[in-house]
């Protein structure tokens, strides 16, 4: 059996499938535009490699043996995979064109998508991408309602119902005013911040829900003094001394040299977050959407 990988070729498998489907060697040969003797020789080679019969020849055709049924099942899977690979590769050789609608949460748009979409555009200039910002919960809803080709969000309740690919990961940090009592700390625990007032994002954002959940786990209630709709506004509110804020670390780093703020990494394990690509089913993606999903899913 160890010789199968080296000696069993795709042509033999394709002819064997034709024989099984036609239940007749002559008809299979006619369908594949090859001599019946050549088909018989290929079947004999398969049987010699396996050491067991895969078909039984009869006066009016053939029957497939239990061994042959097993070979047939795997042959169909192998041929199907080759055909799928060919279809995907043809998207590259023929040039991908079209429009793709993507919904993504704020964290992915602010941190990663601008550069990734720009890089994709250089490789596939004929694909137009429509990108819309939504909360993670709304990303799932819109994709489920076929309002977008796919979405990018944090793993939240309901995301397990979708096909997923990992996209990126980030780490949360706390942004505090320059004169804050913890401004000189190297890193902090979330529990140490629960006596402070927070500036937060919209209540439906994945980040807000995460913070509320973690505060509740510590037996506390998150004291949100005000809510804003963007991470930029969040950082400016901290600069003005209106509260502290939990932000993705790369976002906070953009402001530490321009505003009077300090960025302190969170020591909690849950502060490391993952972003995922979600879609209903890969086979339902258009050619352009499938290529964009593969491109984004391959980012480091």
Automatic annotation (TrEMBL):
Keyword flag Mitochondrion: no
Record-linked InterPro entries: HTH-type_LysR_regulators, LysR_HTH_N, LysR_subst-bd, WH-like_DNA-bd_sf, WH_DNA-bd_sf
GO CC annotations on file: cytosol
GO molecular function, one term: DNA binding
Domain HTH lysR-type: 8-65
Cited SUPFAM superfamilies: Periplasmic binding protein-like II, Winged helix' DNA-binding domain
Pfam families per record: HTH_1, LysR_substrate
Keyword annotations: DNA-binding, Transcription, Transcription regulation
Family: Belongs to the LysR transcriptional regulatory family.
Name of the featured protein: LysR family transcriptional regulator
